[in-house]
Amino acid sequence: MELIPTIGLEVHAELKTKTKMFCSSPNAPHEAKPNTNICPICLAHPGTLPAINREAVRLVRLVGVALNGELANYTEFDRKSYFYPDLPKGYQISQYKYPLVSGGSLNGVEITRVHLEEDTARSSHQGNKSIIDFNRAGVPLMELVTEPVVTGAKEAGDFARELQLLLRALNASDANMERGEMRVEANISVAPNGERGTKVEVKNLNSFRAVERAIEYEIERQTKVLKSGDQVVQETRGWDENKNTTFPQRLKESSEDYRYFPDPDLPKLYCDEVEGLSREELKAQLPELPQERRERYISTYGIKEEAANFIIFDTRYTDFFENIVLTSTKNNTTIRLAVNYLTSDVPGILSKDTNAHLQNLKEGFMEIITLVEANSISSRGAKDAIAHLLVNGGSVEEYARQSNLFQVSDVSELEKLAAEIISENADVVEQFKGGKESSLQFLVGQIMRKSKGSADPKMSAQILMEKLRNN
């Protein structure tokens, strides 16, 4: 019996607003000093009244437009009742029946809804006691729920990456998973094809790697349970990064357990009547979306998809590519050559050398690319120049001269070097004449060694070939 996984995702993202969702306390959940960005409203003191953050509503609706979802005109906020020490009210203000956004899709995955709620405080556990920082309590939190149409771990990871890109492109959230600004929960079940299995929710996955590995583990675990003749328990599980396993936390609640009802302290919203919240106004605010940028890079410049993804996944490289590479040349061949170095050599150096900084390369990068295209320096020389500039900045030409990177392309000089190498390597010459073509590369390498890397390798190979044939 083949068991098929069914996966739905719930993603929470903290929104980039100046203040919290229902009060005027600063939206700064990462403030180093605990319990400083708080007020009686976000601490749920008796007699306090919340007020809706208009910018948070705008950002969620903007995400809805980008997803091509349906924007609700009428919406309301509900109380979601449950007890936990980091929830000051004893309930969370969320949305249940009337979400801000319904439908839409991203990366081929259908969206069920996108709604708005408030974040909880942050708990930390020290031995046998817990302490709570309320700086995060009340921060605007977007929740996006997909349809249960995801079929595997990689598809889930790719969706989460694409959503992070979208949120950053819209400036709706920084969505840094390692800081808890974006958290993924996966609802996973396995069952024979065409059937629905018992759903298990894995909570608070805080990296793309954790999302994929937790899903892979849970699919394997549930499959073993069912094939052994047992039943999967509907429950909430956590992910242990060190052990690479999920573990039980509590039995899974249903919507009835939360006793949703409309919050009596908050007004009903008719969003289309609020200036700046209509679909037409929001559509005009959309920047170039990640998928559009990816398609432009691939179709306009002929960049490979892997390289295009690398550039758009990191705003540092996106800005560098747009502001340095594309403003310097319109030649697609030059652009692709620049992309090769930008996506392979540059990140490798930055990851190894803490003194290396991308901004040091802004002035000289395209000059290096121009020298490579003109065969003035070799690819090896370009790598050395990039590494030097990333750490030190400065003049490309000055470094190239000091390091003897400029290639010798003077025919007479190369002919002289070739004659010396042929004379010094008679046995290799005989091997070449005997049909061992790889011997030519050895002779070229000897010219490069003798010239300390300054000889033009292509011209050296041509001159060697002519001399060997005429000999």
If you had to describe this structure to a student in words, what would you say it looks like?
- The mean pLDDT is 92.
- Helix 6 (305-313) crosses helix 7 (315-325), helix 9 (365-373) packs antiparallel against helix 10 and helix 14 packs across helix 15.
- The protein folds into three domains: 3-283, no CATH class; 290-402; 411-470, Arc Repressor Mutant, subunit A.
- It has 471 residues and is α+β, with helices and mostly antiparallel strands.
- Helix content is 40%, strand content 19%.
- The radius of gyration is 30 Å and the shape is elongated.
- The strands form four sheets. Strands 1, 2, 6, 7, 8, 11, 12, 13, 14 and 15 form a ten-stranded mixed sheet that branches. A three-stranded antiparallel sheet has the order 5-4-16, with no helix packed on it. It has a two-stranded antiparallel sheet with strand order 3-17.
- The chain has helices spanning 54-66, 153-169, 208-227, 279-284, 290-301, 305-313, 315-325, 332-352, 365-373, 379-392, 396-402, 411-424, 426-433, 439-450, 457-470, and strands at 3-14, 70-71, 74-75, 78-81, 91-94, 101-102, 105-106, 109-118, 122-126, 129-133, 140-146, 182-192, 200-205, 235-240, 245-251, 261-262, 269-270.
- It has 15 helices and 17 strands.
- Strand 12 (182-192) and strand 13 (200-205) form a beta hairpin.
